[in-house]
């Protein structure tokens, strides 16, 4: 099969022929119809993830059709249209049995722990736990964006922060995760504030339902507090400075949700967190069993993740697009069609 292969960190990958994955016991092989280009892929290419072993194939959010079914996988057949969370949980540990597959200690992540979806085929381990059946009307391009950015945002906004209608939600960072969060929070009836350095991203945020948009050049914390403060803040980028600004923008007893990965050393105003009874919440992906609620809202038109897709490229253009993330993230979601 053809795949994007990283042979050296920080060096332009190449598209070349590699062996196809096999459908081992408990797993399936998916023919990739669409896969998303995510900043996490860039971090992996740069060598920021200790789980990656070179040579390596990136890619972790994808949709396609089952091409092969391994022994012990019941209820799934060749040709089924599927996607999967980027966290492939084992299904047998204590966390999985409690329904918390997103924090499974035995998890495997395509594009990080093993070869990913920047290829014509990709394996899905623990398939019975991790496969999500796609409605026929949902395109592969739209479904590919659900596995990481949109699903992550849906769980963070709806299931972790529990955003309610009428609440003020400030979203820092309008990449794929942030724009997804804007759309979801707006659909839940929140008054959304979007913050980003990129005016094009803020234009998209307004089109997805943001009522207010700010750039870091403005006094962000003061502007949010002038509106009455945020009930919920979300760091969708991952920055120590942003995390602190987010806490300072909260109303008393507000909730902060951290989605973006942070540096190991982060200093926060813990005194304010205590005195104002603020809540700091982490959110990491979404398990497969939680997808039906999200897919139902997509089916009714309350959520329209297809709007997030702003660019589609072939596999041959992926190496250049991946390395271009060094200088910035293009607005919206880029989808690769192998």
Automatic annotation (TrEMBL):
Required cofactor names: Zn(2+)
Family matches, as Pfam families: ADH_N, ADH_zinc_N
Transmembrane domains' residue ranges: none
Taxonomy, superkingdom: Bacteria
Enzyme class: oxidoreductase
Keyword Zinc: yes
GO MF entry, a single one: alcohol dehydrogenase (NAD+) activity
EC number: 1.1.1.1
Gene3D superfamilies assigned: Medium-chain alcohol dehydrogenases, catalytic domain
InterPro entries: ADH-like_C, ADH-like_N, ADH_Zn_CS, ER, GroES-like_sf, NAD(P)-bd_dom_sf, Zn_alcohol_dh
Keywords: Metal-binding, Oxidoreductase, Zinc
Family note: Belongs to the zinc-containing alcohol dehydrogenase family.
PANTHER family on file: ALCOHOL DEHYDROGENASE-RELATED (PTHR43401:SF5), L-THREONINE 3-DEHYDROGENASE (PTHR43401)
Entry protein name: Alcohol dehydrogenase
Lineage: Bacteria, Bacillati, Actinomycetota, Actinomycetes, Propionibacteriales
